[in-house]
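Why does residue order matter? Because the sequence determines the fold. Keep that principle in mind as you read this record.
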Amino acid sequence: MHFEVLVEDRSGGKALDILIPKIVGVQDTFEIRPYKGIGAIPRNLTDAGSARSKLLLNNLPGLLRAYGKRFADDPTNDPAAVILVCDLDNKCLKAFRAKLFNVLNACDPKPETRFCIAIEEGEAWLLGDLSAIKSAYPGAKDSILDGYVNDSICGTWELLADAVFPGGSRQLGKRGWRASGREKYQWAEKIAPHMDVDANKSPSFRYFRDTLRALVGMS
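Structure:
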């Protein structure tokens, strides 16, 4: 099975680059396609102008149309699927998924596609494995980590920063969004190698894991 993985930022891409082989093994292939933010689904799903954007959802209608044609043009290729991974942030999950499926259903042909949404943010998947965080950051604050409720809407990246970054999220925020992005990338790079994908407690991560394994079982 081959996976085309669309992700909203480099830190998410780094984590998935490490985690996907743990989930499905090395016999399956994947390509990570990181963007520079989540963006928004365009109102006009056939507008080619959005392809100039570097934001994930702005590009989604064109991307799914292109993958649908690409997968259909050569049926001799290995089975392939598009996996969209993005943050829920403060959106309604049901309404957001409905909008994503509207984009997919507008494609002809439709590529095999799955939508895997981190609740609330991608850091929730790291926080689903506290032992991995403590292995990567031995000085992480147990008082903060132990009070975390998996996939809760709580300011996820800020909570992780408060646990592992000197001065916490407040100090990191003062350094600007570029510094925050670099730090999030380092979290992914340092924590993901220690993660046990079968023991992760994040429901949205487990959905992602089980989705990939189900697709591999179909191939």
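The first strand starts at residue 2 and ends at 7.
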